[in-house]
Design a protein that fits this description.
about 270 residues; alpha/beta; 8-stranded parallel beta barrel; 11 helices; binds 3-methyl-2-oxobutanoic acid
Length: about 270
């Protein structure tokens, strides 16, 4: 059996020398996709964006702990190399460190994942410390925090003013000091992400945060063009799976209508 990347291995990937490779991460939610990407990535995040990409919700707020656990367990079962992080959904950790521990320990126990991720800056430092001290590694998430969509009023770039960028730096420092083993930085100017990456000693994983983070993460559904609702500027599409699906289903439909399917290769006959 292969050894999965541990939080220690991820921490060691903090880029100190130019020759080091950035951390490759993808968001993925299903057994099938996880099997396909097992050998290509360092980290798989089972993200709560599944509420939108898989379940068709407008945002991530209706995602439950059980949804995260079912998808997290499927991804863990289907991989043996990457470090698996499972997102803590909205409402499962904000109330207190104790509530967060109850939710996070359930995720760890029932999925077999190696760590959890939660959205928030300085205000969650105490929670991150509490979890970390009790055996639960936490990946932070700052910048655009989709679980705050209703207070933000939309999915907007963060940290564009001096005041906001100072707040982001404080958030990054405070959650790394609290014990976060790495952090996602979403949708902020490249200059701000670069500065944060230089000043904290755990890896930054950028999504829409420019070229100088210690790693990059994108959503598998976005890079394969499997999620048509909208495409953020920071996404690069590396495939066109939705077109292939539509074409395959059109061909199937035509062949059924024209009685070209099933062929003799697809049928059973009685024994002579
Ligand atoms: O849920 C998710 O897909 C995420 C990524 C945007 C990092 O948190």
């Amino acid at each position: 059996m292969k050894k999965r990347l541990s939080v220690r291995d991820i921490r060691k990937k903090k880029i100190i020398e130019h020759s080091q490779e950035p951390i490759v991460s993808l968001v993925c939610y299903t057994a099938q996709m996880a099997r396909l990407i097992n050998n290509q990535v360092d980290i798989i995040l089972v993200g709560d964006s599944l509420g939108m990409t898989i379940y068709g919700h407008e945002n991530t707020l209706s995602v439950t702990l059980d949804m995260m656990i079912n998808h997290g367990a499927a991804v863990v079962r289907s991989t043996d190399k990457p470090h698996i992080v499972v997102d803590m959904p909205f409402g499962s950790y904000e109330e207190s460190p104790e509530v967060a521990f109850r939710s996070a320990s359930k995720i760890m126990r029932e999925t077999g994942a190696q760590s959890v991720k939660l959205e928030g800056g300085e205000e969650f430092a105490e929670t991150i410390y509490f979890l970390n001290q009790r055996g639960i590694p936490v990946m932070g998430h700052i910048g655009l925090m989709p679980q705050r969509i209703q207070t933000l009023g939309g999915f907007f770039t963060q940290g564009k003013t001096e005041k906001e960028s100072i707040k982001l730096m404080n958030d990054a420092k405070s959650i790394s000091q609290a014990g976060a083993f790495s952090m996602v930085i979403e949708a902020i100017p490249e200059e701000v992400a670069t500065d944060i990456t230089k000043k904290i000693d755990v890896p930054t994983i950028g999504i829409g945060a420019g070229r100088n983070c210690d790693g990059q993460i994108l959503v598998s559904h976005d890079i394969l063009n499997l999620f048509g609702a909208f495409t953020p500027k920071f996404v690069k599409k590396y495939g066109n799976v939705d077109e292939n699906i539509v074409k395959a289903v059109k061909d199937y439909s035509q062949e059924v209508k024209n009685k070209k399917f099933p062929t003799p290769d697809n049928i059973f006959t009685i024994k002579k």
